[in-house]
Specification:
With 227 residues, the chain is of the alpha/beta class. The chain is 31% helix and 21% strand. It has a single domain, classed as 2-Layer Sandwich (Nucleotidyltransferase, domain 5), CATH 3.30.420.10.
Amino acid sequence: MLLKMAKKVGNKPHGKKRGSKKCFIAIDESNHGGNPEVIVAALTNNPAYIQPNLVAGGTLDSEGYFLIRGGLSKRRNKSRRTPSPEGVEFVYAILSKEVVAAYSYGEVKSFFVSQLVLTLLERKGLGKRSKIELYIDGVLSEKATQTIVGSIQAKYPLFDSRRLYTWPNLDCCIPLVNEADAYAYRIKRPYENLNRSGRGGLQHPRRVNQKQRVEIGLPERSKKPRD
């Protein structure tokens, strides 16, 4: 899929057509499977942020996926400032162990991703005919893919599975995903410090940008009828 994407990005111009808008969104998380997990969405209109940075070679992981080699390094500095690259907007959500316990991980993760994407698009004021490309680091199940595509497509009908790109190691070869990864890492560190100190579960640390945090309400489960 990535080779197809690289060919498309390299050969197809990204100029805007009159009456339409195009945007690119990346999803990545930090502290995967931990408490809390931070999920970040990054949006830009600049196609330079989705130009692949690939290095020859690669390996297979334990599940048989080909791990592409990217030329971008993960940024793990101890700066207190969150990344603020020009022309990129961020939102994030906190996925706690309490939420995962009430729902399946795959179910709640795909719902969070969908809501973060829709939040960014609404904040940008993009119309329903906008063209959206979504890049997610990692591998999605078929059910998760259907949930994400269906939720976005309901409001932005031009979006479909052909505009969704997922693969391991995208954060090392797609600049926008790399930015989302750096932002997620920076956001999760104050939460980790709170957990270690025991001074509060997932209360918002002072040094984290509160404007970018999205509070996501999960739908209520339908009650099973009594026998």
